[in-house]
Amino acid sequence: SQKIEQNSEALNIQEGKTATLTCNYTNYSPAYLQWYRQDPGRGPVFLLLIRENEKEKRKERLKVTFDTTLKQSLFHITASQPADSATYLCAYGGELNQAGTALIFGKGTTLSVSS
Amino acid sequence: GAVVSQHPSWVICKSGTSVKIECRSLDFQATTMFWYRQFPKKSLMLMATSNEGSKATYEQGVEKDKFLINHASLTLSTLTVTSAHPEDSSFYICSARDLRESTLTEAFFGQGTRLTVV
């Protein structure tokens, strides 16, 4: 069955360092991947979308890569700040879900940045 | 980004009663709305997908008669939890996308509704 996995449940880093989060997918070749941020008790907020033919995408301190050979996406936050502490979710377009248009999410990685 | 408003943000209800949750897209037309459920420290679990004017498509294991979804317009979808029981207590989140031009679009989420059934 199709799976999207974020292997690390939690990541703790010091302020100023680069945080790297991993998203792996199996038995599926998504046309794109998306990354979201979720704060406790809130809905997710869109951060970046990367297509399968794009190697890398950047937005301010954020960078996303997409390696279709490794079936993996990496999400980087450079010069991390305590305000970056949140849960980060990767998602793909679930063409194989019942309606074919929903986003299917990984479990998320909770990032904690200490000052 | 676009704004999706979800109400109420929290609700406590008695077992056996029904609760309605509203999801509105405020500044764009949401051709498709999605309802997710999230347990503590778990990912979002897709419950159903609804297209404006059509019946919702439910994921496997989600009871259609228990979770009634209505998507009457391009800006409003509602989820009604009927005859709620304590095991229905959860965080429910709606999401909206405009898929008319492309599926390469982000999803906009509501603030979520914390439902507690006592």
Task: Give a quick summary of the entry.
With 115 residues, chain A is an all-beta fold. Chain A has strands spanning 3-5, 10-14, 19-26, 32-38, 45-51, 56-59, 62-67, 72-77, 86-93, 103-105, 109-114. Chain A starts with a strand and ends with a strand.
Quick tags:
heterodimer; A: mainly beta; 5-stranded antiparallel beta sheet; 0% helix; globular; B: 118 residues; mainly beta; 4-stranded antiparallel beta sheet; 11 strands
What's the arrangement of secondary structure elements?
The complex is a heterodimer of chains A (115) and B (118).
Chain A: E1 3-5, E2 10-14, E3 19-26, E4 32-38, E5 45-51, E6 56-59, E7 62-67, E8 72-77, E9 86-93, E10 103-105, E11 109-114
Parallel strand pairs in A: 2-11
Antiparallel strand pairs in A: 1-3, 3-8, 4-5, 4-9, 6-7, 7-8, 9-10, 9-11
Chain B: E1 4-7, E2 10-13, E3 19-25, E4 32-38, E5 44-51, E6 57-58, E7 67-73, E8 76-81, E9 90-97, E10 108-109, E11 113-117
Parallel strand pairs in B: 2-11
Antiparallel strand pairs in B: 1-3, 3-8, 4-5, 4-9, 5-6, 7-8, 9-10, 9-11
Q: Overview of this structure, please?
A:
The complex is a heterodimer of chains A (115) and B (118). With 115 residues, chain A is mainly β. Chain A contains no helices and eleven strands. Chain A has strands spanning 3-5, 10-14, 19-26, 32-38, 45-51, 56-59, 62-67, 72-77, 86-93, 103-105, 109-114. In chain A, strands 2, 4, 5, 9, 10 and 11 form a six-stranded mixed sheet that branches. Chain A has a five-stranded antiparallel sheet with strand order 1-3-8-7-6, with no helix packed on it. Chain A is globular, with a radius of gyration of 14 Å. The model of chain A has no long low-confidence stretch (mean pLDDT 90). The radius of gyration of chain B is 14 Å and the shape is globular. Chain B has 118 residues and is mainly beta. In chain B, 0% of the residues lie in helices and 51% in strands. In chain B, strands 2, 4, 5, 6, 9, 10 and 11 form a seven-stranded mixed sheet that branches. Chain B has strands spanning 4-7, 10-13, 19-25, 32-38, 44-51, 57-58, 67-73, 76-81, 90-97, 108-109, 113-117.
